[in-house]
Amino acid sequence: MRGRKRAIALLTALGACVWMLAGCSGETAEEPIRTSTIVLAADGSFTQCRVEDFDREYYQLSELEGMIRQEVQDYVGEAAGDGQAVAVEQVSSLEENDAQAMVALHFSDSEVYKDYRAKVDRQPCELFYGTVQEALEAGYDLAGVLQDAKKGTALTSDQLAKIGGNRVLIFEEALQIRCPSRVLYASGNVRITDAGYVDGTEGEGLKYIVIK
Hints:
The protein is α+β, with helices and mostly antiparallel strands. The chain has helices at residues 2-7, 61-79, 110-119, 132-137, 157-162; strands at 8-11, 17-22, 28-33, 37-40, 46-54, 86-94, 97-107, 127-131, 147-148, 167-171, 175-178, 183-186, 191-192, 198-200, 207-211.
């Protein structure tokens, strides 16, 4: 872990790794990822994409990739669970700036993500990705924070009762979110970008989005 910390700096808000994805508006878009981003999947898994400064004067990209793969391997071994709980999807330099590297890790669910962030990155965080009903059972007050993504009106108790099977993402980090389907409801501290993604890089506190 210490070697990795020497090899790469803190997350930056730059970079340009191109992904073909569906924006949260439901429209397909091809745009480079320029800030720390989570790409949601419909099955409850997701990919965390990070752009990190990389000092090529002292380290090779293969060394960075080796360190990250070792971290994942060590974590999966210690967790003694499914080998696919965390998987390395990409470690590569950026075409437009080889002083930066893209690291993309796929997580089977949000519990694994939180555990990994706490144990490996030493950065505990709050993140929940599951159904609305599961979120309510976990104690989250969705009716008090959610608004209609188009109209801006507050979510009613009747509406909440009808969307128990929809997936909700609750997070606190400064992230952009790319979704597998359209956003139905969101908290006031996030915004939908022109490209159809959720921008949660500026809001404070927990942020909420419910997708179709």
